Amino acid sequence: QDEEKWDFVLVSDIHEVGSQKEIKRKKFLDELSKKGFIIKKIEDKKLFYGVRAPKQIFKKYQWLLRNPDSRWQNPDARQEVPVTTRIRIVNFILQNTVTPDLEKLHDLMKKNVFEASFPLHEKEEVREFLKEKWARWRSIFHHQPIEKIRCYFGEKVALYFAWLGWYTQLLGIAAVAGFVVFVSGITIFNSSQVSKEICEANTTIMCPLCDQNCPFWYLSDTCTYAKVTHMIDNEATVVFAMFMAIWATVFLELWKRNRATVVTNWDLYGWDEEQEELALELINNLQHEPRQYQHSYFRSAIILILVLVMIAVMIGIAHALVIYRVVATALFSQSHSEFLREQANTVAVMTGAVLHYITIVIMTKVNRRVALFLCDLEKPRTFTQREKNFTMKIFTFQFFTHFSSLIYIAFFLGRINGHPGNYVRIAGKWRLEECHPSGCITDLFIQMAIIMLLKQTISNVMEYLIPCIAHKLRKKQQRPKKRSMVLGEEEEAEDPCKRQWLNNYRLNEVNIFSLFDEFLEMVIQYSFTTIFVAAFPLAPLLAFINNVFEIHLDAIKMMRLYRRMVPRKANDIGIWLQVLEAVGILAVIRNGLVIAITSDFIPLQVYKYTYSPCMTKNSSGVDCSTGYINHSLSIFRIEDFEPHTRAEALPNFNSTQNKEYRDYRNADDYSYTVQFWHIFAARLAFLILFEHVALCVKLIAAWYIPDVPQSVKNQILDTKHTNLRKEL
């Protein structure tokens, strides 16, 4: 039975005898035969070549990478090589076997000499266990069998699921905290003094929100919106933002401990990836010379310039979305449809969000191409180095693709648009959009909610449905032909391998990016969960619900819908850890900025402790924020409007009366008031204080929680001591 186990299957079209492709295929298979590989051919609609490596290759591997304590053992009394290691070694040799024409398997697949190469899903005990106990929806709340995943998919995949499980567990804590903050916001929905004042301001007339056909309006019209704003924008949000900064640090520190325990149990704590790669190169070709480390400052400068150009393009796309919203609002407000006129701003924002989602989908594909091109320019020494470089570039590009629009809404929207009578305009015609009169934080909340819900639901549904439908279609297409072959050539149909190989071939293709894509999706989600959490406290809850399904969705895909991944050996999650740490620091900075700049928290605190009734006279029974709204409005004279502004009048409208807008400006020359500079100084002071305190707390948490548990250190110490004693 063991003789019938095949390490890999190569699939090829049936080429004409004597054709160029057929000759190239034969040359490649001959090279494998020279290395002692056994090759079995099965013919169907395609040609299938089963490949099995000679035992000698695995003995060399074991000898070269033996454990220090195996030096006293008899070399022949060594254990069998695990299946995952077999597949890894065979894959390395297949990828690095060179034909006389100096072509590798990668080149031959580009030229359609071979169509596919994959290891097989075997009917073994581990697989049946994983299919029944892990890759099923009913086991959604069960503990993950990490050890079994490692035995079947290798360490890299096992560490991904260990990390995802750990992240989801700790997200549960953040989700509960976020939910409590949100619920506490709902409880003060009607009791906030600020929103009460807005709801009662039915005599305060505000400036129109666009140039043409927009009416003057009463501040009380935004009553509901104001209540929603103060549901999000309150003191609890500041505490929650600080909590999330500490949470991000504790999560990573505890993950480092968890990872150290796991890899020590796997005997991989001190594993040397470079030594492993050199050993595989020598097993494949004894004459191999290692590529030397190289660094070119010129090449690095070119790559840096190209990365900056790419980032500039993404910022340009964010600007294009801003221009779209501005122009769309102006056009919709002049539309013949009454609904479009009334809801011009909402329709512009919603269509803008859809456009943003489309740009994310398109730019993801572009980003990948560009990142691969830049990696080729860099000429990395090893596959691992290439993967690290690619990860850094694609994450940077994806980060700007996802967040440049949110950064604009959070920090620039409504702050660079001028004031009534002197608006900043695009092409001198369309005035820049403003925040909602109740504040900018609700705009950010809505945008975050739309993107997170859309991205998580649509991407998860597509992630499952596309491979599922593709798998069913492939099965359907290939079934009729298979039956005719069975009837026509009975002796071939009896081959036990044929059905297994065909079933594996019909599964969806995996590539080196399959696991990378899962990591990238989760790290982008982690960024959403931490970076703008001050504006969207429900982000951790949405992420938690998504991840509970994501773990089992990935499990079902890997076990049932995709071909078997080539196992990769690893003792950590690689460069992703540095990326997560960078996101943690960015989260502190961005949340500080959201509270200081986007939210009304600082202006309200300045008012309470400087200008409020509590400070000016003894009024113990009065709420300190009484009068804040009136204090935050500025007066505008209607005669100062620009000539082409045409606003609709309100009933009982007095055209000589002064109107109001949200800002801190003088009534005579519209320059900034003393209060504006006071609030500006308070914003800067809060930002510096918040960031320093949060970063200090992060550093203390990182110092307080050791990366490696003492039990792991003691275990390594005991092993070293035992080995040295045996040597003596």
UniProtKB/TrEMBL annotation:
Domain of life: Eukaryota
Residue ranges occupied by any Anoctamin transmembrane domain in the UniProt entry: 149-716
Membrane topology: Multi-pass membrane protein
Domain Anoctamin dimerisation: residue ranges: 76-146
Transmembrane stretches, start-end: 157-183, 236-255, 301-324, 344-363, 394-413, 523-549, 570-589
Gene Ontology terms for molecular function: chloride channel activity; protein dimerization activity
Keywords from the named record: Cell membrane, Glycoprotein, Membrane, Transmembrane, Transmembrane helix
GO CC entries: plasma membrane
Cellular localisation: Cell membrane; Membrane
Family designation: Belongs to the anoctamin family.
Record-given protein name: Anoctamin
Organism expressing this protein natively: Tricholaema leucomelas (pied barbet)
Gene field: Ano9
